From TrEMBL:
Pfam families for this protein: Abhydrolase_1
The protein's name: AB hydrolase-1 domain-containing protein
Domain called AB hydrolase-1: residue spans: 50-306
Amino acid sequence: MATQLLPAQLETDSSPEDPLLVSPTVKLSDGRHIAYRERGVPKAKSNCKIIIVHGFGSSKDMNFQVPQELIEELGIYFLLYDRAGYGESDPNPKRSVKSEALDIQELADQLQLGPKFYVIGVSMGSYPIWSCLKYIPERLAGVTMVVPVINYRWPSFPDSLTREDYRRPLAKLLYWVAKYTPGLLHWSVTRKWFPSPSVMEEKPVFFNKRDMEALKKTEGFPMLTKERLREQSVFNTLRNDFLVCYGDWDFDPMELTSPFPQNQNCVHIWQGYEDKIVPFELQRCISKKLPWIQYHEVADGGHLLVHYNGLREAILRAMLLGEEHHLYRPSADKTVP
């Protein structure tokens, strides 16, 4: 008999005194509420518990569809949650790189996921994963980062790689504007004459051919429309998340040690060779400096490769079973210092 899967949406968890909540929440020790949803096999019957961390402008409702056959075969329980300020979760005015890992740990403890769990971070949802590797490595059973964002402030990047990268000055400019002129930024991105941030869904300058095809089957970036950005709370959350991700960290990820010294195949990075947002050269540099990370590269992959058919299955099989497909081994056409 097939294992009964958890529904995509859980029933309301609210009291008569509280406003109606679409999703269940947990109350953290600092009083904030974090909203979540569960998928896959029931937690008590699962072989592995995976927390999925969404990226910029997304939420716990992000598309991470996996065939039911694979979920049942591996006994996977998924936990997706709204990061601070996103979706139905309360904002964190003290958000930091470290607080992201502590939110994950407390969420896992309150939902009784056990001493160890897996984490998957997508795009900007990867900086909480670096935080987990730094601050709660003993809680991790396995780690995957999909097209993880790059912070050019990390000191271990060789200048020879970043000097000519056009994204470096752009990131620096956006950070300065977001930090020092938030009012002007909010005003400008909601003007009719200013291109909507959601235009990124339609412009090949940001995405490659496969990305554009994937966008036809996903909701894209619903928080990045002019209508949503007019909401001060939405703008504040996105700005705060951006500033933490691209600001100064209190550690250099490339100086971390493996949380799995007896098993070198438990941390994975998946990168698209044609990613126009995150350069593959810097991901290769990271994997070279941290040889305990298993690096996978999709030759025709862009920034949205998590939405490609077959990729989610490959990601899960690599993390849970140690499988590696020859198609996702990086080519040697460019060298990294």
